[in-house]
Amino acid sequence: MSWCAKMKTLAVMAVALLAFNSQSNAAVVVFLSEATGVGQGAAVGNPAGEMLVSETPQSRTLGVWVNHEGLVDNSISSIFIDVTTDNPDVLRFTGGEVFNASIPAFPAPLPRWQTPGVSVDNNVVTLSGLNVTAGYGLNPLAAGAGGTEADFFENGNFLLGTVEFDLVGEGQANIFMQIGAQGILPGNPGGSGSSSQVDVTFGDSETRSLNAGNERLTPSDVPDASYKVNPDDVIIPEPATLSFLGLASLAFVRRRA
User: Fold this and answer.
1) Does residue 223 register a pLDDT over 80?
2) What tens digit of pLDDT does each residue of 10-56 get?
3) Does the pLDDT of residue 237 top 50, yes or no?
4) Which of 214, 179, 205 is nearest to 83 (CA)?
5) Per-residue DSSP letters for the chain?
6) Containing domain of residue 181, as a range?
7) What percent of the chain has pLDDT over 70?
């Protein structure tokens, strides 16, 4: 790499690692999606699925995405997100992954996280990305710095990682997210930002935001994803069939009128 190229890379890094100095709280959205990579149409929503009990056990994977698009000059230096369920007899978490991208730097590439981690404890998955002295965290400016960060950033959404689970029995299981025990820290590693400056909304239909400083380990109000496992004698219509049935019902109502 030439001297000029090195200087350009360092300049991009300096912009990417701007300290958090906003006076208002950071508005962060965390959502689950069946998209587990860029180019798969990740969008804020609440995934849902339905299947028959004879189709179990069945493994599924959801992407965990983070959006703070309104804060283009700021980053998240550390983040802890828990994912849990209200029915472990139907849905059992098996693991996950935290993606650790990197951008070019001298003398070595700079990672997104110093310490990425995944843990499963009592059917709760915790995804964590921790920076203490280095790491650029979740910063939209880093996506333009080259390296692999662009592989995990799309339309203002960061792909933090994935959660994996098995559907194992009959019934309905809802998935909820919450801010992990160590919160979410804005800004540079070692900077002046605090978790109390971050307000988090989960999914698409949440009725409130949660503060990363004093509302940790508080589940979201509404399910962030839902899965239903039906008895084998239940017929699950295909989406096209559902549309046809809806049109047929409408025609019947008009005919009676």
Assistant:
1) yes
2) 434 443 443 334 346 778 999 999 999 999 999 999 999 999 999 99
3) yes
4) 179
5) --HHHHHHHHHHHHHHTPPP--SSPEEEEEEEES--STTS---S---EEEEEGGG-SEEEEEEEEEE-TT-TT--EEEEEEEEEES-TTTEEEEEEEE---EE--SSSPEES-SEEEEEEETTEEEEEEE-SSS---B-GGGGGSSTTGGGGEETTEEEEEEEEEEE-SSEEEEEEEEEEEEEEEESSTTSS--GGGEEEEESSS-SS-EETTT-TT---SS-SEEEEEE-TTS----HHHHHHHHHHHHHHHHHH-
6) 3-256
7) 79
Domain of 78, CATH number, reads 2.60.40.680
**C-alpha 27: how far from chain center:** 14
For residue 256, what are the β-bridge partners?
none
Residues 204/209/214/219 CA torsion (nearest 10 deg): -40
The one-letter amino acid at 119: S
The total of structural domains in the chain comes to 1
Query: What tokens were used for 115?
Result: 């310490």
Residue 239's pLDDT is: 57
CA torsion 182-205-31-215 (nearest 10°) is 0
Residue-level pLDDT at 56: 93
Please name the amino acid found at residue 23.
Answer: Q
The amino acid present at 131, given as its one-letter code, is N
pLDDT tier for residue 206 given thresholds of 50, 70 and 90: confident
